[in-house]
Amino acid sequence: MSEGILTDVLIAVSLTLVLAGAAIVVFVRRPARQAVALSAYGVLLTVLFLVLQAPDVALSQVAVGSAVVPLIVVLAIRKVESIHANAGSRDAEREH
């Protein structure tokens, strides 16, 4: 009986943390920081899946949601920033 209560408490705490993590990801303004928050959110989802006894889903989440997707976002941000920097330098050269 107490094991069921402990499981319910763990699920409630995990869901609360996932909700708070989702809010943090949404309210972070800078994209680079948002990628870091997204990675932490992936870890929170991993914990939730472990609590729900879904280790295969948790493993997928930690690999994809916590590592690959934030890495792709960071790489995309860097690429966009380099494109803007190059465009800015070309505009400066045209003016001279």
Automatic annotation (TrEMBL):
Main location: membrane
Keywords from the UniProt entry: Cell membrane, Membrane, Transmembrane, Transmembrane helix
Domain MrpA C-terminal/MbhD: residue ranges: 17-81
A GO cellular component annotation in the UniProt record: plasma membrane
Residue ranges of the TM segments: 6-28, 35-52, 58-77
Location(s) in or outside the cell: Cell membrane
InterPro entries in the record: MrpA_C/MbhD, Nuo/plastoQ_OxRdtase_6_NuoJ
Pfam families per the UniProt record, alphabetical: MbhD
Coiled coil regions, renumbered to chain: none
Transmembrane helix found in the keyword field: yes
Gene3D superfamilies associated with the record: NADH-ubiquinone/plastoquinone oxidoreductase chain 6, subunit NuoJ
Topology class, membrane: Multi-pass membrane protein
Protein name (Swiss-Prot/TrEMBL): Na(+)/H(+) antiporter subunit B
UniProt organism field: Sinomonas puerhi
